[in-house]
Amino acid sequence: MKNNRQRVLVALLAGLLAAATAWGFAYVTNSSTGLPVKWPSPAYPLRIMLGTNPGGTIDYAAAAQAAAQDWNAIIGAIQFQGTVATGTATDRNRVNELVFAANIFGEAFDTNTLAVTTTWRLGNDRTEGDIIFNSARNWGAYNGPTQSGLVDLKRVALHELGHALGLDHPDEAGQTFSPPLPIMNSRITSNDTLTPDDVTAAQNLYGPPGTPPNNNFANATAITLANNAATVTGYNTNATKEPGEPNHADNAGGRSVWWKWTAPSAGSVTADTRGSYSDTTLGVYTGNSVNALTTIASNDDINRGIVQASTVTFNATGGVTYFFAVDGFDGDVSGLTLNLAFTQATGTLPTITAQPVSATVTAGASVVFSVTATAGASPVTYQWQFNGANLVDATSSSLSLVASSANAGTYAVIVSTTAGSVSSNTVTLTVNAAPPPPPPPPPPSSGGRGGGGAPSLWFWGALSLLGLARFLRRR
Ligand SMILES: [Zn+2]
Fold first, then answer.
1. Which CATH class is domain 217-344?
2. Which of 95, 99, 279, 445 could pair with 329 in a Cys bridge, judged by C-beta atoms 3.0 to 4.6 Å apart?
3. pLDDT in tens, 355-381
C-alpha cells in the first residue's frame, strides 16, 4: 500500500459563534477515498501527561480521563484506554500523548487557540493523535458556563478527543445549531457535555455499544420501499460472521449484517452502500439458510480503492426474497448505509403454453424441439440451451437437429420479454445407433415374380378397402 500519511491540525478556538438550527457533524477524511479517518483497533491507548496544577488542587489528568470515559460510554467499536504518566510528547512515535506545551512541536500556537490535536493516518486508518493543551492559558476544571480567564480542561479534552476519533468541526462545514451547541463546534461554549449531534457523529464511525439487531441472517431487517426506493442505516460494530456464511465479494470480512427485501414484481434492482463510513462489501443472495445461499450479485468497490462503497444491479423476480449482506472490507466497522432502487419491468412475463417434448430417435433422424409462449403484446425472444449452455444462433421458437451421439443430452429454452425470463422444461434427446444396413436381397428364384421393390398401387388400395370393410362391420 502506498504510504498515505498526512498531518491534520485542528484547533479549538476561544470565542463565540452565532447559532441557529441543527442537523449534523463533520469528519476528518482521507482525501483519496472521501472516507473518514478512523482508529482501527478496539483499544485506543492514551498517554495522559497532564498532571495537576502547582498546588495539586486541580487534577488535569483526571479531567482528561473523565472526558475519555464520556466518549467510551457512547461508542461500540473502540474504547479509549488512558494511562496517567509524566513526560513530553513526541511527534510520529505512534503514541497518543496528551500534554501541556508552549508550542505545537515547535510551531507557535495561534492567539485564540486553546489546544490542538495533531494526527497521522495510513489510508483510512488513524495511526497517531497527540493532543497539546496551550500552556499559556490558565486551566481549570469546572462545569457550566465558561469562566473568564479560566479554561475548563475537560470540555476541551472532550473536543480534542473527538478529533482523535475522526470528527471535525460541524460549524465550519456550514452546519448551524441551536444551543446547547455541539462540543465539536470550533468554539468553546457554556455546554460542557456531548450533545446528540456529537453522539451521532461518533456512532457513525464506531457504532453504539452492543451488537446490531441484524447481525445474523435469520434476523435480517426487512426493507420497505417508498416510491420504489429506500435508504436504511445501521452499523456492523461487534457484528460476527456465522458458520457457513459465504465471503461477500470474495473478501473474508467478518462483520456482516443483513437486510432483506421481497420483489413485488419483476424488475431491475440497484443496491449500493454509499453513505457508509468505511470500506464495505455487498453480497445479494436468495435462499433460506445462511450456509446454503445462492449468490445473485456481489461487489467490493464502486471504483477500486477510490470509491470504496459497493454497488450491484440485478434482475429481480416477483415474489422472491433477496438478502443483502453488508460487511466491512477485511472486517472494517462503522455506521452503514444501504440504498435500494427498484425499476419495475415493463411488459408481461412470458407464459409457456406448450412445452418441448423429449425424443428418442435413431442417429441421422431429424428432430425438432419447439416451445409456444405468450406474453400479451410484449415481444418474446428465445434462447435454446444444450446441457445447460446457450446454443449459438438457436434463438427461435423451435430448434431443428440431425440426431447424432454428439447432440444427445438435455435441452431447454429460455423465453424472455423485457419483464423477465422463464425457462422451459428440460427435455432429453436420446439417440440410438443407426441399425446395421439391411442384408442384401436374396437372389431371384426361377419362375417367381420379378424382383422386390415397392408394392404396387393396387395392393395398397386392397388393404384400404379391407380396413374399411372391417370398420363397417364393427358398427
Ligand atoms: Zn477542534
1. mainly beta
2. 279
3. 999 999 999 999 999 999 988 878 899
Q: State pLDDT tens for residues 196-240.
A: 999 999 999 999 999 999 999 999 999 999 999 999 999 999 999
CATH 3.40.390.10 positions along the chain are: 8-206
Which cell numbers hold the place of 271?
Answer: 443496491
Q: Quickly list H helices, 111-242.
A: 153-165, 196-206
CA–CA separation, 168 and 154 (whole Å) = 18
DSSP annotation of 245: P
User: pTM, whole model, 2 decimals?
Assistant: 0.71
Which fold, 8-206? Collagenase (Catalytic Domain) (3.40.390)
pLDDT band, residue 5 (cuts 50/70/90): very low
Q: Report how far ligand 1's centroid is from the alpha carbon of 332 (Å).
A: 26
pLDDT band at 415 (very low <50, low <70, confident <90, very high): confident
Helices 60-72 & 153-165 angle (0-180, nearest 10):
50
Q: Which contacts qualify for 383-392: CB closer than 8 Å, 24 or more apart?
A: 383/413, 383/414, 383/416, 384/411, 384/412, 384/413, 385/411, 385/412, 385/413, 385/414, 386/410, 386/411, 388/412
What superfamily in CATH does domain 351-432 come from?
Answer: Immunoglobulins (2.60.40.10)
Percent of the chain residues topping a pLDDT of 90: 71
**Cα 198 to averaged position of ligand 1 atoms, centre (Å):** 13
Across the chain, what does the average pLDDT equal? 87
d(CA 421, CA 418): 8
* Cα(176)–Cα(413) distance, integer angstroms: 61
- pLDDT on residue 446: 53
Please choose, from the candidates 418, 416, 424, the residue with its C-alpha nearest in 3D space to the C-alpha of residue 385.
424
> With the C-alpha atoms ordered 347, 350, 353, 354, is the resulting torsion angle positive or negative?
positive
Q: How far is the CA of 224 from the centre of ligand 1 (A)?
A: 39
Look at residue 426 and tell me whether its pLDDT is greater than 80.
Answer: no
Distance 163 CA to ligand 1 centre (A): 7
